[in-house]
């Protein structure tokens, strides 16, 4: 049975919903009129 594309997406389109990996709410920000979704726990920024 084929898997729908949306079932494979871990963060895209899931703003404020739990990350499928860790359960942290997914964040959303607009950059140049394009949505950017990320999990702040799984996708932390660079280490200073």
UniProtKB/TrEMBL annotation:
Keywords: Metal-binding, Zinc, Zinc-finger. Residues 10-44 form the FPG-type domain. It comes from the Bacteria. GO terms for biological process: base-excision repair. SUPFAM superfamilies: Glucocorticoid receptor-like (DNA-binding domain) (SSF57716). PROSITE patterns: ZF_FPG_1, ZF_FPG_2. This is DNA glycosylase. It comes from Streptomyces sp. SID7499.
């Amino acid at each position: 049975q084929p898997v729908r594309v949306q079932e494979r997406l871990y963060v895209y389109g899931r703003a404020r919903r739990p990350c499928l990996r860790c359960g942290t709410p997914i964040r959303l920000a607009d950059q140049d009129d394009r949505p950017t979704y990320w999990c702040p726990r799984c996708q932390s920024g660079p280490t200073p």
